[in-house]
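Posting for a labmate who doesn't have an account.
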Amino acid sequence: MNAPTLATERLTLRPLGQKDLAPMTAFYASARSQFVGGPASAEQVWRMLAAEIGHWALRGYGRWGVDITETGETCGMVGLWNPEGWPEPEIGWDLYAGFEGRGYATEAGRVAREHAYTVLGWTTAISLVNPANTGSQGVARRLGAVHEGAFHHERFGMLEVWRHPGKEGAA
């Protein structure tokens, strides 16, 4: 399964590949990764990247590398995620250091959700957010998601479940 390339006014969401290893390794070496399984070693990050790419083959959807179209800089990873053990399909976002506060996660999350609803036929989606991750809570709110409850994950602990509006409410 090949991931499609999506675009917004400022961003290009493209298939993940080898070029993502260095920025992912830097992200997972930093405290920014604390809410998504980090910090992690370079070897662990290689396996995470392989899992992200393999998710496309197993589920027919996944997450994209996000580049700032004008500069080509990779600013994060955003998209659709539903590994074994997840309660239901999720829209997730990881922004790399120095790219927060510019609306990139919201913008990329919106186009990923639109893809899920219009191309994949999803009728609903969630985002799982660590209760201490106020930045991700803000992204969820800006996307119109509402805090719905909690989910306990075996590795990540207690996570908030944020429910996205359906296709009509998300437009």
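Reply:
Got it, the structure tokens are right above this. The helical segments are 21-29, 42-59, 104-118, 134-142, 167-170.
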